[in-house]
Every structure is written in structure tokens, then in C-alpha cells.
Amino acid sequence: MKFDVIIVGAGPGGMFAAYKLAGKLNTAIFEMGRDISKRKCPSDLSESYCTKCNPCNITSGVGGAGGLSDGKLNYVHPEYPSSFSVGGDFDFLDPNYLIEKMNEVDEIFLKHGAPDELYGDDLEKIEDFLKRANAAGIEFVPLRQRHVGSDELPKVVKSIEDKLKKEGVKIYTRKTVVDIDPERKVVRTEKGEEFGYDYLIIAVGRSGASWLEKWARDYNLEVAENSKAIDVGVRVEVPASIMDDITSAIYDPKLRVITKRHDDYMRTFCTCPRGWVIREDYGDFCLVNGHSKAKEKSSNTNFALLGHYEFTEPFDEPNEWGRDLARITTKLGGGNPIVQRLKDLRLGRRSTESRIKNNRLVQPTLKTAIPGDISLAYPGRAIDDILDALERLDKVIPGVADDSTLLYAPEVKFYSLKLKVDEWMKTNIPYIYAIGDGAGVSRGIVGAAVTGLIAAEGILRERGME
Ligand SMILES: Cc1cc2nc3c(=O)[nH]c(=O)nc-3n(C[C@H](O)[C@H](O)[C@H](O)COP(=O)(O)OP(=O)(O)OC[C@H]3O[C@@H](n4cnc5c(N)ncnc54)[C@H](O)[C@@H]3O)c2cc1C
């Protein structure tokens, strides 16, 4: 069987590319995971992720890694140029074109059920916060954001999927692409089936990044950058009341600090107002993450506080370093994440069940986290950075560095290989485009979706249809 366009991966990148191609070119999506209606995590999100599903329903399936996620949609803020760096490396795009594409993504999300409420437009509040942040030596990056919520996002994904199918896009689930033959212009699945294409879009996300890395090596796909960096830190949990002021104006505030002692770059990421800390299991280690819902609310707010560490010669395995840190932290937690009160970290002692129980202001939302000592797993430099950044953030969000604040580890973000693509997301191999997080060009739902629209436009142009 042959298609005009084959898209590998049904994450936001792949689905938005298909959205643009639907009704114009004969398009098929091959997705190794399940349909959104069948993506169920057997564990309660507030307690534990597991490894029972292969592929994992959290990171794979129609909707991609974002399908069951918090659904924070981050858009650049035209008033604030610093916001152009969030969600992907889009330096190669004209800023006006980027805004145009983000607006297009937003319109599609709204059409399919994303909420009307838009954060980031209360400029008076933002300017006030910006002033306070800068006075404390903190960079604040204002964005425009919507929050769909992990309870509502599957409905939005389903609505987009239905529209694609109605317009003739074939969506094949439980089909893993294991090889691409660019000479014959065919993809091969794990069952040995072959499908021909005129154009191919690789949109495999992080779950397909290691396969893509290997394929890129075998077929000389040009690489722009092989990252030597990793982000390591903690998830911070505080009473929601101390962050309500800022999170009511900006749902997921992006704050950046250069630490005093080590000159390291720390950032806040993935704030979940009135949400839950959750865990993700990766076999021999686990990581923490967060989510929040549109309807149900907890009384805590959590966010990631991450340090960016770049390695130099001779070491070039940052991801392995991160995995080792995660393994040792998980081991200390007896196979679970660790939770520690900030007071205990400051005093150089472990948290215990009774110390956590006494922590009257804030109780952990992740019940399977084990009270422990993060400083027995993390390097001193990372601990210095965490303490320093929290003190600085406290000047902008008073109370965030209170003794009662809870810290969870391991919180690690890995970087993928960055492929070399042109302004239409086209690789050096004819008729092959690469988009989204797997290609290393985006870092989020909206960024991945934007690259999908661009690749589709590139193909339509190549066909003389735009
Ligand atoms: C728990 C969690 C919460 C998140 N929360 C947010 C958030 O609130 N806001 C935000 O902006 N971002 C969030 N993200 C990140 C966001 O989901 C990703 O940045 C985004 O989904 C990337 O889109 P993508 O299309 O590039 O790849 P993905 O969404 O990863 O999709 C790739 C798809 O390709 C499939 N695939 C991989 N290899 C193959 C293969 N060989 N054959 C066939 N199919 C294949 C995968 O199964 C997957 O479904 C979150 C991620 C996680 C894991």
C-alpha cells in the first residue's frame, strides 16, 4: 500500500501535520501506542505510574506524550521577546511567522475543546511581577498559556482524532515503524509489512528518540547538535495559597536564576497549581513529575526546579549520568522517589515519617514518596544550587523557601539529539521531514504542533499546492 504522506507518531507533532494535510493529500499515521480511548494507566495518577503497559500508555499512543498530560499550552507572548525561547529552538523562524503558527495551533485547540481562559494577558500584574523578579536577580519569562487539565485533555485529543478520520486520514495504532528505506521510499513495521510514501514525516517524540538516533546514524541523517547537557533538580511542593497570586496571572511561571556559588542556570518548569506530584517508572529507576486537573483541585501547588549541567571533555554521556543519579535516589527510597522537608535538607539530616507528619502547612500529595535525604544521592553542587535558587525565589514568591517546603527527587529532564532541518523541517534525506521533541526541535505540546504545521506546509509547497 502507498500513501502520499506517512507520518510516524501520533503525538501533537504528527497530529497537527495531519490536520493540515487532511483532505489535500492521502495521509496515514503509524502509531506504536494505543488509541486515546484505550490509553489507560492502570495506576492511580496521584500514586504511581507503572511499567505494566508496553508501550507505556503515558508516553505513547494517539495524542503522544501529551495525551494524558496536564495539558499546559504555552504560547509566546508578543509583548515579551524573551518568551520566544520557550517550547523549542525556533531561532531559524521569523518571529512573526512563529506567532502566526502558534495562533493557528491555538485556534485548532479551541475548536476542539480547549478552555477559553487565557493566562498572561493581565499586563499590570505581569509588569509588577517582572519588576519584583528582576529586583531579586531573577529572570521572569512571561508567556500566554491555557490549561486544559489531565481530566479534559483526552477529550480534546479524541475530537482532533475524529476530525482527522472524517477527513480521510488513516490512523493505524499498535504499528511500530522499525525501518525506513529512503531509496525505495518505504517504511517497514515490526510485523514486516511495507508501506510506500511520497513524503515521510518522522514525529516519534522522546519515546522514539533512541530508535531515531540509531536510524540517523545508519542512514547519515545530519545532526545539528549532540547535546552534552542534562537538567537535574527537585519537584517543589508548597501550600497553594502562597502561589495563588502568581499562578492566577500566569499558570506556569517561568523563572530563571543564575546561582551565586556555581554560576549555574536554574529554572522553574511545569508548575501545577493545586495539583499533584506524580511518579513515572522507568524499570530500574523512577522520576517525579506533576499534573493538575481542570475540575478537581488539591490544596498544594508543585513545580520543577531544575539545574542545567553541561559536560565537557572527556565526558559525553550526560543522559547516563542522569540515569545513575535517578537510580541511586530511587534505591535510597527503596524503589520509590524521596521526599524531604527543606528544613531537614538545610540541617543535613533525613526526613522521617514523623517529621513529615509534623509538617502541618503542607503534606505530600505523592503518597508513595519515602521520607529521606536527597543530599545522599545528589552531588553537593546540585544541592547548593537548589538551596540558593529557593532563597532567591522566596523574594518573589514569599514562603517558597519556608522550612516546611517539600522537595521530591529524582527530577531529571533528558535532552535528545537535535537533527539538522531546514525552515520547512526537511532533513538532508530527500522527501523526509523530522519534527517535534524526537528531532530535538521542540520541547512541549505547542512547539511540537507548530513544527507539524510547518512540515505539512513544506510538503504542500513541494507539491505545488500552497
Ligand atoms: C507526564 C508528562 C506531562 C507533560 N506535560 C506537558 C504539558 O503540560 N505541556 C506541554 O507543553 N508539554 C508537556 N509534556 C511534554 C509534551 O507531551 C511533549 O513535548 C510533546 O508531546 C511532544 O510531542 P511530539 O509529537 O514531538 O512527540 P510525542 O508526543 O512523544 O509523540 C510521539 C509519538 O510517536 C510514537 N512513536 C515513537 N516511536 C515510534 C515508532 N517507531 N513507530 C510508531 N510510533 C512511534 C509514540 O508512541 C508517541 O505516541 C509532558 C510530557 C509528559 C511525559
From TrEMBL:
What are the residue boundaries of the FAD-dependent protein C-terminal domain, all occurrences included?
231-412
Tree of life domain: Archaea
Q: Which InterPro entries match?
A: FAD-binding_protein, FAD-depend_C, FAD/NAD-bd_sf
The record's annotation in PANTHER family points to: DEHYDROGENASE-RELATED
Record protein name field: FAD-dependent protein C-terminal domain-containing protein
Q: Which organism was this protein described from?
A: Archaeoglobus fulgidus
